[in-house]
Write a structure and sequence with these properties.
287 residues; 9 helices; five-stranded antiparallel beta sheet; single chain; alpha/beta; six-stranded parallel beta sheet; oxidoreductase activity, acting on the CH-OH group of donors, NAD or NADP as acceptor; 36% helix; Rossmann fold
Protein backbone atom coordinates (compact mmCIF):
# COMPACT_ATOMS: atom_id res chain seq x y z
CA UNK A 1 0.00 0.00 0.00
CA UNK A 2 1.52 3.32 -1.09
CA UNK A 3 2.11 6.15 1.36
CA UNK A 4 -0.30 9.09 1.26
CA UNK A 5 0.83 12.30 -0.45
CA UNK A 6 2.43 14.79 1.96
CA UNK A 7 0.26 17.85 2.53
CA UNK A 8 1.41 21.38 1.80
CA UNK A 9 1.27 23.72 4.78
CA UNK A 10 -1.93 25.44 3.59
CA UNK A 11 -3.72 22.11 3.06
CA UNK A 12 -2.69 20.89 6.51
CA UNK A 13 -3.66 24.20 8.13
CA UNK A 14 -7.13 24.04 6.58
CA UNK A 15 -7.65 20.42 7.69
CA UNK A 16 -6.42 20.91 11.24
CA UNK A 17 -8.45 24.08 11.77
CA UNK A 18 -11.52 22.41 10.24
CA UNK A 19 -11.15 19.43 12.59
CA UNK A 20 -10.38 21.57 15.65
CA UNK A 21 -7.04 19.82 16.33
CA UNK A 22 -4.03 21.44 18.04
CA UNK A 23 -1.35 22.79 15.68
CA UNK A 24 1.15 25.57 15.11
CA UNK A 25 1.94 27.69 12.06
CA UNK A 26 5.61 28.67 11.77
CA UNK A 27 6.50 31.51 9.39
CA UNK A 28 9.92 32.90 8.54
CA UNK A 29 9.34 36.66 8.89
CA UNK A 30 12.87 38.07 8.55
CA UNK A 31 16.27 36.66 7.68
CA UNK A 32 19.78 37.99 7.30
CA UNK A 33 22.85 36.42 5.80
CA UNK A 34 22.86 32.84 4.54
CA UNK A 35 19.64 31.06 5.57
CA UNK A 36 17.85 27.86 4.47
CA UNK A 37 14.60 29.56 3.35
CA UNK A 38 13.42 33.04 2.46
CA UNK A 39 10.93 35.18 4.46
CA UNK A 40 7.42 33.92 3.92
CA UNK A 41 8.35 30.23 4.09
CA UNK A 42 5.86 28.36 6.26
CA UNK A 43 5.48 25.06 8.03
CA UNK A 44 2.59 23.53 9.99
CA UNK A 45 3.45 21.53 13.11
CA UNK A 46 0.96 19.13 14.73
CA UNK A 47 1.41 16.88 17.74
CA UNK A 48 2.35 13.91 15.57
CA UNK A 49 3.24 15.31 12.13
CA UNK A 50 5.00 18.14 10.31
CA UNK A 51 3.84 19.61 6.99
CA UNK A 52 6.18 21.47 4.64
CA UNK A 53 9.62 22.73 5.66
CA UNK A 54 11.62 25.77 6.73
CA UNK A 55 14.79 24.31 5.29
CA UNK A 56 15.63 21.35 7.49
CA UNK A 57 18.57 20.84 9.77
CA UNK A 58 18.94 21.59 13.46
CA UNK A 59 17.22 24.97 13.01
CA UNK A 60 14.02 23.30 11.81
CA UNK A 61 14.09 20.72 14.60
CA UNK A 62 14.38 23.53 17.14
CA UNK A 63 11.37 25.30 15.61
CA UNK A 64 9.40 22.05 15.85
CA UNK A 65 10.47 21.50 19.46
CA UNK A 66 9.52 25.08 20.42
CA UNK A 67 6.09 24.71 18.82
CA UNK A 68 5.37 21.33 20.41
CA UNK A 69 6.44 22.57 23.83
CA UNK A 70 3.87 25.36 23.56
CA UNK A 71 1.20 22.93 22.31
CA UNK A 72 1.91 20.56 25.21
CA UNK A 73 1.46 23.42 27.69
CA UNK A 74 -1.87 24.42 26.11
CA UNK A 75 -0.55 27.85 25.11
CA UNK A 76 -2.24 29.93 22.44
CA UNK A 77 -1.41 33.10 20.52
CA UNK A 78 1.81 34.26 18.89
CA UNK A 79 5.47 34.54 19.74
CA UNK A 80 8.59 35.56 17.84
CA UNK A 81 11.51 33.12 18.03
CA UNK A 82 15.03 34.19 17.02
CA UNK A 83 17.58 31.73 15.60
CA UNK A 84 21.23 32.56 14.93
CA UNK A 85 22.34 29.85 12.51
CA UNK A 86 25.60 28.88 14.06
CA UNK A 87 24.70 29.91 17.60
CA UNK A 88 21.40 28.58 18.95
CA UNK A 89 20.96 26.28 15.95
CA UNK A 90 24.46 24.93 15.63
CA UNK A 91 24.41 25.26 11.82
CA UNK A 92 27.20 26.60 9.61
CA UNK A 93 25.05 28.98 7.49
CA UNK A 94 25.92 31.90 9.71
CA UNK A 95 22.66 33.73 9.06
CA UNK A 96 19.91 34.96 11.35
CA UNK A 97 16.21 34.06 11.21
CA UNK A 98 13.12 35.32 13.03
CA UNK A 99 10.28 32.80 13.06
CA UNK A 100 6.73 33.72 14.04
CA UNK A 101 4.95 30.88 15.86
CA UNK A 102 1.15 31.00 15.88
CA UNK A 103 -0.25 28.42 18.29
CA UNK A 104 -3.77 27.05 17.88
CA UNK A 105 -4.69 24.75 20.80
CA UNK A 106 -7.67 23.37 18.85
CA UNK A 107 -11.30 23.25 19.88
CA UNK A 108 -11.65 24.39 23.48
CA UNK A 109 -14.61 22.05 23.97
CA UNK A 110 -14.68 18.29 23.45
CA UNK A 111 -18.05 16.50 23.45
CA UNK A 112 -17.90 12.72 23.90
CA UNK A 113 -21.13 10.96 22.93
CA UNK A 114 -21.59 7.29 23.81
CA UNK A 115 -24.28 5.72 21.65
CA UNK A 116 -25.05 5.91 17.94
CA UNK A 117 -28.78 5.31 18.21
CA UNK A 118 -31.53 7.72 17.19
CA UNK A 119 -30.83 10.34 19.85
CA UNK A 120 -27.06 10.08 19.46
CA UNK A 121 -27.38 10.57 15.72
CA UNK A 122 -29.53 13.68 16.16
CA UNK A 123 -27.06 15.05 18.72
CA UNK A 124 -24.20 14.70 16.25
CA UNK A 125 -26.22 16.39 13.49
CA UNK A 126 -27.18 19.30 15.75
CA UNK A 127 -23.64 19.73 17.10
CA UNK A 128 -22.12 19.94 13.61
CA UNK A 129 -22.25 23.77 13.30
CA UNK A 130 -20.76 24.25 16.77
CA UNK A 131 -16.97 24.72 17.07
CA UNK A 132 -16.62 21.63 19.26
CA UNK A 133 -14.65 18.47 18.72
CA UNK A 134 -17.07 15.52 18.87
CA UNK A 135 -15.94 11.99 19.79
CA UNK A 136 -18.72 9.56 18.87
CA UNK A 137 -18.51 6.09 20.43
CA UNK A 138 -20.46 2.88 19.96
CA UNK A 139 -19.64 -0.72 20.84
CA UNK A 140 -21.54 -2.18 17.88
CA UNK A 141 -20.25 -2.82 14.37
CA UNK A 142 -21.50 -0.85 11.38
CA UNK A 143 -23.74 1.62 13.22
CA UNK A 144 -22.17 4.92 12.17
CA UNK A 145 -23.83 6.54 9.14
CA UNK A 146 -21.83 7.07 5.94
CA UNK A 147 -22.14 10.86 6.19
CA UNK A 148 -20.23 10.88 9.49
CA UNK A 149 -16.88 10.28 7.78
CA UNK A 150 -16.95 13.65 6.02
CA UNK A 151 -18.18 15.73 8.97
CA UNK A 152 -15.62 18.21 10.34
CA UNK A 153 -14.39 17.81 13.94
CA UNK A 154 -16.11 14.40 14.24
CA UNK A 155 -14.20 11.29 15.27
CA UNK A 156 -16.18 8.01 15.16
CA UNK A 157 -14.79 5.36 17.49
CA UNK A 158 -15.73 1.68 17.64
CA UNK A 159 -15.46 1.21 21.41
CA UNK A 160 -15.96 -2.38 22.52
CA UNK A 161 -14.36 -1.74 25.92
CA UNK A 162 -16.24 1.06 27.75
CA UNK A 163 -13.49 1.61 30.33
CA UNK A 164 -10.76 1.86 27.71
CA UNK A 165 -12.89 4.35 25.75
CA UNK A 166 -13.34 6.51 28.85
CA UNK A 167 -9.62 6.29 29.68
CA UNK A 168 -8.79 7.68 26.21
CA UNK A 169 -10.92 10.82 26.62
CA UNK A 170 -9.19 14.19 26.96
CA UNK A 171 -9.48 15.69 30.43
CA UNK A 172 -12.25 18.25 30.67
CA UNK A 173 -14.52 16.57 28.11
CA UNK A 174 -18.28 17.02 28.24
CA UNK A 175 -19.82 13.54 28.12
CA UNK A 176 -23.25 12.19 27.20
CA UNK A 177 -24.13 8.54 27.79
CA UNK A 178 -27.00 7.08 25.76
CA UNK A 179 -26.09 3.59 24.55
CA UNK A 180 -28.43 0.77 23.58
CA UNK A 181 -27.67 -1.14 26.80
CA UNK A 182 -28.32 -0.16 30.44
CA UNK A 183 -25.41 -2.24 31.73
CA UNK A 184 -23.06 -0.47 29.34
CA UNK A 185 -24.49 2.89 30.42
CA UNK A 186 -23.83 2.08 34.06
CA UNK A 187 -20.27 0.90 33.37
CA UNK A 188 -19.56 4.09 31.45
CA UNK A 189 -20.90 6.30 34.25
CA UNK A 190 -18.84 4.34 36.78
CA UNK A 191 -15.69 4.81 34.68
CA UNK A 192 -16.37 8.51 34.09
CA UNK A 193 -16.86 9.13 37.82
CA UNK A 194 -13.68 7.24 38.62
CA UNK A 195 -11.73 9.55 36.32
CA UNK A 196 -13.06 12.59 38.15
CA UNK A 197 -11.82 15.08 35.55
CA UNK A 198 -14.77 15.39 33.16
CA UNK A 199 -16.30 18.83 32.63
CA UNK A 200 -19.82 17.37 32.72
CA UNK A 201 -21.59 14.00 32.64
CA UNK A 202 -25.08 13.46 31.24
CA UNK A 203 -27.12 10.25 31.17
CA UNK A 204 -30.24 9.54 29.17
CA UNK A 205 -33.17 7.83 30.89
CA UNK A 206 -35.86 8.22 33.47
CA UNK A 207 -35.67 9.21 37.12
CA UNK A 208 -36.28 5.58 38.07
CA UNK A 209 -33.31 4.51 35.91
CA UNK A 210 -31.09 7.01 37.71
CA UNK A 211 -32.38 5.88 41.10
CA UNK A 212 -31.33 2.31 40.24
CA UNK A 213 -27.96 3.46 38.92
CA UNK A 214 -27.40 5.71 41.92
CA UNK A 215 -27.89 2.84 44.35
CA UNK A 216 -25.43 0.58 42.55
CA UNK A 217 -22.90 3.37 42.04
CA UNK A 218 -23.07 4.16 45.76
CA UNK A 219 -22.31 0.52 46.47
CA UNK A 220 -19.35 0.86 44.09
CA UNK A 221 -17.90 3.58 46.33
CA UNK A 222 -18.98 6.86 44.70
CA UNK A 223 -19.90 9.60 47.17
CA UNK A 224 -22.77 12.10 47.05
CA UNK A 225 -20.66 14.84 45.50
CA UNK A 226 -19.65 12.61 42.59
CA UNK A 227 -23.17 11.28 42.06
CA UNK A 228 -24.56 14.81 42.17
CA UNK A 229 -22.42 15.72 39.17
CA UNK A 230 -24.40 13.40 36.88
CA UNK A 231 -27.35 14.97 35.05
CA UNK A 232 -30.15 12.47 34.54
CA UNK A 233 -32.45 12.64 32.73
CA UNK A 234 -30.79 14.79 30.06
CA UNK A 235 -32.94 17.08 27.94
CA UNK A 236 -36.16 18.57 29.27
CA UNK A 237 -38.08 16.60 26.64
CA UNK A 238 -36.96 13.34 28.24
CA UNK A 239 -38.34 14.15 31.70
CA UNK A 240 -41.78 14.89 33.05
CA UNK A 241 -44.98 14.05 31.23
CA UNK A 242 -46.49 15.32 28.03
CA UNK A 243 -43.26 16.64 26.53
CA UNK A 244 -42.00 15.91 23.05
CA UNK A 245 -39.99 12.70 23.36
CA UNK A 246 -38.91 12.32 19.74
CA UNK A 247 -35.15 11.81 19.25
CA UNK A 248 -34.76 15.24 17.65
CA UNK A 249 -36.52 17.01 20.53
CA UNK A 250 -34.50 15.15 23.17
CA UNK A 251 -31.25 15.96 21.35
CA UNK A 252 -32.21 19.61 20.93
CA UNK A 253 -33.09 19.96 24.61
CA UNK A 254 -29.89 18.17 25.62
CA UNK A 255 -27.71 20.54 23.62
CA UNK A 256 -29.63 23.51 25.03
CA UNK A 257 -28.72 22.29 28.52
CA UNK A 258 -25.11 21.76 27.51
CA UNK A 259 -24.45 25.16 25.94
CA UNK A 260 -24.25 27.15 29.20
CA UNK A 261 -22.02 24.44 30.71
CA UNK A 262 -19.55 24.79 27.85
CA UNK A 263 -19.73 28.58 28.01
CA UNK A 264 -17.83 30.91 25.72
CA UNK A 265 -14.49 29.16 26.00
CA UNK A 266 -14.00 28.56 22.29
CA UNK A 267 -10.94 30.44 21.07
CA UNK A 268 -11.39 32.72 18.09
CA UNK A 269 -9.30 32.09 15.01
CA UNK A 270 -6.19 34.27 15.37
CA UNK A 271 -4.60 34.03 11.93
CA UNK A 272 -3.39 37.39 10.68
CA UNK A 273 -1.45 39.90 12.75
CA UNK A 274 -2.41 43.44 13.51
CA UNK A 275 0.48 45.72 12.43
CA UNK A 276 0.82 47.05 15.97
CA UNK A 277 1.34 43.51 17.25
CA UNK A 278 4.05 42.91 14.66
CA UNK A 279 5.89 46.09 15.70
CA UNK A 280 5.61 45.11 19.37
CA UNK A 281 6.98 41.63 18.72
CA UNK A 282 9.96 42.96 16.78
CA UNK A 283 10.56 45.63 19.39
CA UNK A 284 10.67 43.03 22.15
CA UNK A 285 13.09 40.88 20.18
CA UNK A 286 15.44 43.77 19.40
CA UNK A 287 15.70 45.03 22.96
Amino acid sequence: MSASRPQAWHEALHRLQRDGLPHALATVVTSAGSTPREPGARMVIAEDAVHDTLGGGTFEFQVIDAAREKLACGESGMSLEAFALGGRSGQCCGGFVNVLLEIFPGSAATLAIFGAGHVGTELVRLAAPLPWRVLWHDSRDGVFPDWAEAQPRLDCRHATDPRAAVAALPAGSHTLVLTHDHAEDRELIDALLQRGDMASIGLIGSKSKWASFRSRLTDAGHDEAALGSVRCPIGTASGGTGGDKTPYAIALATLAELLPLVGNAERADQRGLDPAEVRALFGQNAS
